[in-house]
From TrEMBL:
Protein name per its UniProtKB record: MaoC/PaaZ C-terminal domain-containing protein
Cited SUPFAM superfamilies: Thioesterase/thiol ester dehydrase-isomerase
Domain Peroxisomal multifunctional enzyme type 2-like N-terminal residues, every copy: 18-147
Organism taxonomic ancestry: Bacteria, Bacillati, Actinomycetota, Actinomycetes, Mycobacteriales
Homology family: Belongs to the enoyl-CoA hydratase/isomerase family.
Record-annotated MaoC-like domain positions: 163-259
Organism per entry: Rhodococcus olei
PANTHER family in UniProt: ENOYL-COA HYDRATASE CHSH3, PEROXISOMAL MULTIFUNCTIONAL ENZYME TYPE 2-RELATED
Amino acid sequence: MPIDPGVAIGAELPAQEFTWTASDVQLYHLGIGAGSRPLDPRELRYLDDVAPQVLPTFATVVANIHATEAPKVSFPGVEIDLAKVVHGSQEVTVHQPIPAAGTGRTTTRIAEVWDKGKAAVIVQESVTTDGDGNPLWTARSSIFARGEGGFGGERGPSESVPLPERAPDHEVEVPTLPQQALLYRMCGDRNPLHSDPDFAGGAGFPAPILHGLCTYGVVCKAAVDTVLESDASRVHGYRARFAGVVYPGETLLVRIWEEPGRLLISASVPARENSPALADVVLTLA
């Protein structure tokens, strides 16, 4: 049986210890589209050679940014074919601004396994500290495994976030590059779903798709640039559900509503009848 909830839930994964440099931060920011306004001083803050500001979404890649092999979905109680897996949701809470260079240690456990009928959702929670043991960020993520449900588990709660019944305060169009996935995969996610047309076809897609976490970062940056004067330190937390695919080269429509202490956000693809990309997006302010 590919999923055994009795073994999986509560299981701790091997701790990860890692370091990063300003160059790693620059690479990540380029991977989510930074630098498109190369004469704008605010834009160049993401790409400074010595002390670039760091978007909180960098936390999602830093532990594996130097990986060169495709990931495996192999955890205690969980063995799933990579072609069946897509990212379900992602949340990051930062406890201090992420430094431009540093050392981290991440501990992760499988928190929940939900049975959605035709699919399974596996939720992981992680805590990252710096070299002195001080908290840097916590994260919660889920993966959606097609064809792996039906094992008799609980369906799980709804975490939907309703949007205000009014026009958004901001709308911004954000183009992606045709080679965006090929660039972003240099941040450590070498899943062939994002680079190999044959693999993508076997997984049911007409072409390689953009990494969900790339879209996640692109939309976070758009909100920071549009509402927060490009100041990444003003973000305390950021979460989203991956609601649909984005193909490299497509333009995203990002809609933002301002509320006390937070931003509510949606992202869609206008060229495909506003097909949703991210939903239930909440950016909490520091």
